[in-house]
Inverse folding.
């Protein structure tokens, strides 16, 4: 089955005073998902945004998929509000969920596609019993909390092991990678088996947002072509 490679610009590195316009430029450059990083100052050492910002963005951008990455404690308490605000996909951290199976069903019950995330120090084996429930698995390739960090190469092994496991069990979840994805790393993550590519700093950090997105997507696609 041909993989669909998609770029998910992470608005964490956008200009928050100009959020919708920045996000639109990234989508014009070829981004097909908008990755929204929600941080609570507890699960991760940073604070970003909540449901009102997602609702405003949704008004400004009615059609895009919003891939909402919850880096928060007690995600169950906030899933209904993010779903109401316009999230399309919702990701929760395995490390933040005491009852992960229940939380994934809660996301689905609110009409969103459930995804699960693991931190760099979390092995993929902890996901064995939820792989059938999830729409996507996000492998963090930095410790979450900040944009612009250095890519952790050990995540490549985890991505390829997950891709093998998916094949072995005949499952359909998609594999996403988040953190330090840029022109110098995007080929490696695609070759390892990831297809949803989150990029914050590499899209919004400097230069032309549209052009940055376009080049990243092109680099990702040429890595698949070389791989096939
Ligand atoms: C990190 C966030 C990422 C972040 C990635 O905690 O989950 O989505 O924005 O940023 P870059 O691409 O700059 O590493
Ligand atoms: Zn993220």
């Amino acid at each position: 089955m041909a993989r669909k490679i998609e770029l998910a610009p992470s608005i964490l590195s956008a200009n928050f005073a100009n959020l919708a316009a920045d996000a639109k430029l990234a989508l014009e450059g070829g981004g097909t998902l908008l990755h929204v990083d929600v941080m609570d100052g507890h699960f991760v050492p940073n604070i970003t945004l909540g449901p009102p910002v997602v609702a405003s963005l949704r008004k400004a951008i009615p059609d895009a998929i919003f891939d909402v990455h919850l880096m928060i404690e007690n995600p169950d308490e906030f899933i209904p509000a993010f779903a109401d605000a316009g999230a399309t996909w919702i990701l929760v951290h395995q490390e933040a969920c005491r009852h992960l199976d229940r939380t994934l069903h809660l996301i689905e019950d609110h009409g969103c596609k459930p995804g699960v995330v693991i931190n760099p120090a979390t092995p993929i084996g902890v996901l064995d019993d939820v792989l059938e429930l999830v729409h996507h698995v996000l492998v963090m390739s930095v410790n979450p909390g900040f944009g612009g960090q250095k890519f952790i190469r050990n995540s490549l092994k985890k991505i390829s092991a997950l891709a093998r496991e998916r094949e072995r069990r005949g499952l359909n979840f998609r594999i996403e990678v988040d953190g330090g994805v840029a022109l110098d790393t995007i080929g490696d993550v695609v070759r390892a088996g990831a297809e949803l590519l989150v990029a914050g700093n590499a899209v919004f950090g400097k230069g032309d947002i549209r052009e940055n997105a376009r080049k990243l997507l092109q680099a990702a696609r040429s890595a698949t072509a070389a791989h096939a």
Notes: The mean pLDDT is 97.
